[in-house]
Amino acid sequence: MFALTYLVFLAVANAANAATIPTPGRVRTSLNDNWKFSRFTNNPDSLSYNSLKPWLLPQANLFITGTKYPNPSASSPGANIPYVQSSFNDDTWQQVDLPHDWAITGPFGAPGISGGMGRLPTNGIGWYRKTLLATADDISGTKSIFLDVDGAMSYAAVWLNGNLVGGWPWGYASWRLDLTRYLREGNNTLAIRLENAVDNSRWYPGAGIYRNLWLVKVDRMHVAQWGTQVTTPDVSEKEATVKVVVQVENLGGAAREVDVSTRIYAVGDGSGAEAVATIKTVTTAVAAGEKRFVNDSVTVPNPRLWGPPPSQTPHLYLAVTTLSSGSAVIDTYTTRFGIRSITYSPSNGLLINSQRVYVQGTCNHHDQGALGAAYNHRATQRQLQILRDMGANALRTSHNPPAPDLLDLADEMGFLVLDEAFDCWSAGKTANDYHLLYPEWHEADLRAFIRRDRNHPSVIAWSIGNEVQNQESALVAREAIELQSIVHSEDPSRQVTSAMNAATPDHALPATLDIIGLNYQGEYGNYAAFHQKFPDKMIWGSETASCISSRGTYFFPVHSGNNNRYSAVGSSDAAARYISAYELADPGWGDSPDAVFVAQERFQPWVAGEFVWTGFDYLGEPTPWGGQGGSRSSYFGIVDLAGFPKDRFWLYQARWRPEKAMVHLLPHWTWPERVGDVTPVHVFSGAEEVEVWVNGVSQGRRKKSGKGVYRFRWDEVKYQAGEVVAVGYKDGKEWGRDVKKTAGKAAALAVSVDRAVIDGDGRDLAYVRVEVVDDKGTMVPRTNNTVEFSVAGPGKLVATDNGDPTDMTAFPSASRRAFSGLALGIVKAEKGAKGKITVTVRGDGLIREGEVVVTAQ
Ligand code: GAL
């Protein structure tokens, strides 16, 4: 036992990631590599969800409390389909690694796919095939072999050696199938069928096995799927109670006794090889085919609490649960968790560990821009790092369960997560969205989601819905009551909300919810009415802003107020489909960031904060140009689709990280056609005062002009070529500055990379930024030169982008038009590669090429 403890300690002390901890008795391996794939736009197999449904529904039985779905007696469909046979020759199919999104390579303009869904070919039927090797031990009768799917879009059905094993229709669900029964020694043929309808989403959903796949091998007696629940009901700096519930499952043919014990380790704590607490061993007998809960708690002295930076630190712990019999370890199951308390205060907002934390959050969809929905750890980490740099401390996983790994990152980085389940309930928003599944699957989907995510300290509340239809209706209130009680039964430790844009305080819906989450209507003044009606509920802006802009494009005249409709004169160029980056435009609902800040301030301290729509631009929903001939991706992001911050980024940074010495001025200063014309200069900064000069002539030193003003503005500045300088002051001293210079002709490419060293695992990414510059190195802000990426050495160009919502060049293209001076190349190493990867970028015309070297190791 000592050896195990020591091994576990070493791993815990050295790694932040629970995936690297040794787990005797349990083997979990990635099934991501080496798949064969084919997509069909005409049904190649005559199957449909309806014909498969009777065999899929019993999968939900583990997650429903009422009548179970019967196992059909008829023989299962699909056995005669060539793709499920080992004899089928798939040589002509595409070779792919997972996570895989079949639609992201385009082209744009897919028939039948709306602008709202990103104009990419998500629809159709996709078949995936892989050979699985099983050992004699795997099929000896003592093992359970599970397929764990983090997410497959959508209507998945799985065959092993020609036998339908099961599946799960909802594309955002994580699910498990037991392969044991059909597994045989040697080669096994695993085949997965997916099907996506058109009109199944309001945004780009992605298509394919777009999240990780795992093979789990355990003894038939094991900790069940998501079989632990760790909570910290009492937390102080002196001590914390850690409560651990373990669900032990016996899939063997006979009753067995097993010893269950759990040790708690501090992750990354180099203080000693000992567990910080141990839950006493309990012996339990589990009948064949049954489950037993074992539950106990322990005190952790002097706990290192989990909380969001900068005021707190996200310390993590690991619960290592061991099932054993005598000296033999049967299973080891790890649960990473945090020790922290949450208080939902109606009068003071959100408190973490009794300290008020104002929610500075963003909503985000699940795509990763040019990589699509295919989950990538580094891409997600980069997004979170950019948001963190801005000062964000919270995320809303709009409007569906995220990839599990995103929550691991959030735990490690200390983000507060509003974990959201659904965009609709029984009434849909598009013809083929979740409302089709809701009646039969909502309970299973919701319970599975909560069980999967409830041990993450980052999850601070659950959202059961977003702007569901008919918020005034009695039916919706009944649905909310049912959904919320499902959540409470799976997790009594957190509160529940649903994001409401249309409900009023008098409707039944808000009365049913723990937290009042308002979309936009808070800014219309409705926080007060809800607060008055529900004085015992916490309130926040579950969705705010929806400001729209395209990075680096500015239009005139600039609106003198805080907020303006995108269609107003000076807000946008409808023909070009760009919206002004003065960051004042809204789509007809929502507001500029400034106007949201006004509403938030007005209701402090009781409004707990906001979740901005959105942190990043996303594929689809290119409001206001979602129609025919429109754009491909959204304008809502604070950061564009390529990950380049729009000007708004610094407006949020000024408010959310006021201590950061930062001055950001806009617009760019290359306006040959505007000489002598009014060209307002706006400055985003946490400074007390800012002075602006144009070619050395002061335009005045200004304070923010009063309460409710979040930007410094010089609306009367007349343009002259040269330079504009803004200097910020605090306590009368210079605190930061920004300069924009008039650029000459494009002459060179300035190429840089976010990380010079990446893992040579074929998954890690280097993001290469290309700036078109003049001969003095000044960025040329209005260029649309095409740049061409090439990669030498053991690497590969994955995709390119520029953050331009109107650009219909497919993402894998090596050639990309720069947008407002910038382009992006995403590069990875070949699998197993080591060495130098040289990325060269060439421009058209007389532009000098640029180059950057990335080392794979
Ligand atoms: C909200 C909705 C979001 C998105 C947004 C665009 O009403 O919840 O999903 O559509 O509008 O402004």
From TrEMBL:
The keyword Nucleus does not apply. Keywords: Glycosidase, Hydrolase, Signal. Residues 1-18 form the signal peptide. Residues 231-340 form the Glycoside hydrolase family 2 immunoglobulin-like beta-sandwich domain. The keyword Signal applies. Residues 350-504 form the Glycoside hydrolase family 2 catalytic domain. One of its GO terms (molecular function) is hydrolase activity, hydrolyzing O-glycosyl compounds. Residues 676-735 form the DUF4982 domain. Residues 749-846 form the Glycoside hydrolase family domain. GO terms for biological process: carbohydrate metabolic process. Pfam families: DUF4982 (PF16355), Glyco_hydro2_C5 (PF18565), Glyco_hydro_2 (PF00703), Glyco_hydro_2_C (PF02836), Glyco_hydro_2_N2 (PF22666). It comes from the Eukaryota. Residues 127-201 form the Beta-mannosidase-like galactose-binding domain. Belongs to the glycosyl hydrolase 2 family. This is Glycoside hydrolase family 2 protein. It comes from Immersiella caudata.
